[in-house]
Amino acid sequence: MRTNEEVVREAYRLAEGSVLDGDGFRALFTEDGAFNDMPNSMSFRGDEIPQALMGFASVFPDVHRELLAVHALGAVVAVELRIQGTHLGGFPTPAGEIPPTGNRIDVPTADLWHLRDGKIERFDCYNTANVLLAQIGVKPDFDSAIKAAKAAAAGA
């Protein structure tokens, strides 16, 4: 049986833009396993898990994850990495799709993988979404946030 670190390293290999094997990635998880995109409060369970890979790869088809440090701590594998790629596909948002910019991303990330009996039970991805958005040209709209907060306070 593979070690927990070997399982996690295989998951990263299968998620590379040059490989992109959603079914193979899914097979590394327990039947009820979960992929949690923490900054975006999104969770993919079971057979939804490949959707997370395919969705990201549709925006950044050359996605690469540069592993900086991997620490296997019993049933948990902690990974420091950088998610890299080129913004070549539409980026979906609640307000509409951000068209491709051709900008490169290099996003600091920390991942926690929880394994049970050689399978991934839970994968928590903590990417710095604000860095990713800035790198594709999305600037915070502080004016709208201040106006909304003032309006909410006035109505309270």
> Structural class of the helices, strands and pairings?
alpha+beta
Distance, first to last CA: 59 Å
CATH architectural label: Roll
How is the main sheet built? Answer: 6 strands, mixed
Unreliably modeled segments: none
Strand content: 35-45%
> Which strands sit side by side, in order, in the main sheet?
2-1-8-7-4-3
Mean pLDDT metric = 96
Domain SnoaL-like: 21-122
Pfam families: SnoaL_2
InterPro entries: NTF2-like_dom_sf (IPR032710), SnoaL-like (IPR037401)
Protein name: Ester cyclase
Can you walk me through this structure?
This is Ester cyclase. InterPro entries: NTF2-like_dom_sf (IPR032710), SnoaL-like (IPR037401). Residues 21-122 form the SnoaL-like domain. The protein contains five helices and eight strands. The protein has 156 residues and is of the alpha+beta class. It has a single domain (4-155), classed as Nuclear Transport Factor 2, Chain: A (Roll), CATH 3.10.450.50. The termini are far apart. The mean pLDDT is 96.
